[in-house]
Design goal:
This protein has 587 residues and is mainly alpha-helical. It is built from 25 helices and 8 strands.
């Protein structure tokens, strides 16, 4: 217990334990362990030191965070009250006090997490023979080996599982033994990726080779930070924010470095760089929207999902299906190798083709699941999809109109799809600067409002946010590409990167259970339809003045970036932000 950072006190009974706990300041974590406990140290570590849960229990051990302390006090009061007296514990009499308290916390509405111990031992022997057997079971299992294995994410891609994790876990242990934190490793990964982007920006073959090597080193560190967090159970709110956003910062910075390097050699690939970023972000929002729509759906069954589960039972299909979606490990390995041996143009085309195939594969599968699934989606899921839609003041105004509230507006996903197709088609067909694009954008904003006027509970309504992302990002890409300024595409790249950060930030807030960013932030940044309308108006006003259009995009990108970054930093470093990490996320 002391090795885990606890100040140990001994209590003879529940009443004395309550008195000792009452003396501990209310803001501190407390733990109770039965004096007869026999088990592995790592079993206790999992039960007592994981900061992500308000209460964690294992046989003979219980720990609670600050927010669950009042419930623990009530549970102790119920346990020590004489049977039959008001407030006495009426639950089944468990074998130990810690088990009784865990049951009482569950009954009191506190979610008690019970970690999967696997081969680890955690028990309270009833007699000497049971104690002897428990100690023999402890001796038979190397808990350090179990700890190392459990540091690796359970569901990762092929490249990460077989080419990175076999040694990165040992790097994580090395870092833990030297007091390094996951946040420090995450920062080192970011800095390494930024240096790699700088090497790519040189435009020289030696720079490209160095960039590819450094990008792989950055990815090794990216895997190590999460493994270090799991190995040492040092999850944090700041770590959640860094882990959730730095992957995108690194990837986008490297795209920019490749584009700058290509420009030094006379090859303009900014359009491809922006196209790759748009495609990747839209693919991710498909993943996020589908998962949120079905997060807590009832009657959540589908023949397609059943077939997928059966395929998972055939070993090689699991890895093939993980590889073809081009998760982050395979994606970074491909980028690193192609950067070293080919040109930026080839890198981006390979990335676009690979990501497009993966996006088609995953989206088609999820559409089939949704059409064959009999699921009742909850209000929480509908709210999450509405938040992911990022609707601004114009869409909100349209949604409040009488025809929006009556429900006589058709399927939200069809309205969103038609609006997105109309917006992108007009941007492609109309000449750059044509004022007719502005009323088309107004129609798109009206469609955006109608699409979110009702709760998004339809079978395919999770496609509404992806349609909005595709419409906004692609419109910016097309208008920048068709302007007469060669610097418009780099400016558009910065704008889409800033907006994409805002959208990823929204996703991770929803995952943490804290809801979307504040309404004022969405209103200030205009929502997706407001930003799209603004870019269309700028194109119409500044047609023939390409440099002015580029300047306008740059100013808009800086303004959006400043607003969303300041609010994001404020939120993620606040004490109320959750410690959420990507367990099982391969993309």
């Amino acid at each position: 217990m002391r090795s885990l950072g606890f100040d140990v006190r001994t209590a003879a009974d529940a009443e004395e334990a309550g008195a000792l706990l009452a003396a501990v300041p209310t803001g501190e974590r407390v733990a109770l362990v039965d004096a007869r406990f026999v088990g592995h140290l790592h079993a206790l570590r999992l039960a007592l030191t994981d900061p992500r849960f308000p209460a964690v229990a294992a046989p003979g051990a219980l720990a609670v965070q600050r927010e669950a302390r009042p419930a623990l006090t009530r549970a102790l009061g119920a346990v020590v009250t004489p049977p039959g007296a008001p407030g006495a514990d009426t639950l089944t009499d468990p074998a130990t006090l810690t088990d009784a308290l865990a049951e009482r916390l569950d009954a009191d509405g506190v979610a008690v997490h019970r970690p999967q111990l696997g081969t680890l031992v955690a028990t309270v022997p009833a007699d000497a023979e049971a104690r002897h057997e428990a100690r023999a079971a402890v001796a038979a299992v190397d808990d350090e080996a179990v700890r190392l294995r459990s540091a690796v994410k359970a569901h990762d891609g092929f490249f990460t599982t077989f080419f990175i994790s076999p040694y990165s876990r040992y790097i994580a242990r090395w870092c833990a033994r030297r007091g390094l934190t996951p946040n420090q490793v995450t920062t080192a990964s970011l800095l390494t990726a930024l240096v790699a982007a700088g090497c790519a920006a040189t435009g020289e073959r030696a720079g490209y080779v160095a960039a590819g090597v450094l990008l792989l080193v950055s990815f090794v560190l990216d895997c190590t930070d999460g493994q270090l967090a799991r190995y040492a159970l040092t999850y944090s709110t700041m770590g959640a924010w860094l882990d959730a956003t730095f992957d995108r910062v690194k990837e986008y910075a490297f795209y920019a470095g490749l584009a700058l390097g290509a420009a030094r050699n006379g090859d303009d690939v900014w359009g491809l760089a922006l196209g790759a970023m748009v495609l990747m972000t839209c693919r991710h929002v498909v993943d996020f929207s589908f998962n949120e729509a079905n997060h807590d759906a009832t009657a959540n069954t589908s023949p397609t999902a059943t077939l997928s589960s059966r395929l998972d039972g055939v070993g090689w299909t699991v890895w093939v299906r993980r590889m073809i979606i081009l998760p982050i490990g395979e994606r970074w390995a491909m980028i690193a190798v192609l950067t070293a041996v080919t040109t930026p143009r080839i890198v981006f085309w390979a990335l676009i083709v690979g990501c497009a195939f993966g996006a088609c594969y995953t989206t088609a599968g999820r559409v089939l699941r949704s059409l064959t699934r009999k699921a009742q989606r909850t209000d929480r899921a509908a709210r999450a999809l509405a938040d992911l839609a990022d609707s601004g003041p114009l869409a909100e105004l349209q949604a409040r109109m009488p025809w929006g509230r009556t429900g006589a507006i058709g399927a939200p996903v069809l309205i969103a799809a038609l609006g997105a197709v109309l917006m992108v088609t007009a941007a492609l067909v109309l000449p750059f600067g044509d004022v007719r694009l502005v009323p088309v954008t107004v129609l798109y904003a009206m469609a955006a409002g109608l699409a979110v006027a009702r709760p998004l509970k339809g079978a395919l309504d999770w496609l509404v946010p992806p349609f909005f992302r595709a419409a906004e990002y692609t419109t910016v890409l097309v208008l920048a590409a068709r302007s007469d300024s060669p610097q418009a595409l780099p400016a558009a790249f910065g704008l889409v990167a800033a907006v994409a950060y805002h959208h990823y930030d929204t996703v991770y807030r929803i995952r943490g259970g804290t809801g979307a960013p504040p309404a004022w932030l969405v209103r200030v940044t205009g929502g997706h339809e407001g930003r799209t309308l603004l870019v269309a108006v700028l194109a119409a006003l500044l047609a023939g003045r390409g440099d002015d259009f580029t300047l306008a995009l740059t100013v808009l990108a800086v303004a959006v970036a400043l607003v969303v970054l300041v609010e994001s930093i404020r939120f993620w470093v606040s004490s109320g932000a959750p410690a959420v990490h990507d367990e099982g996320e391969t993309a």
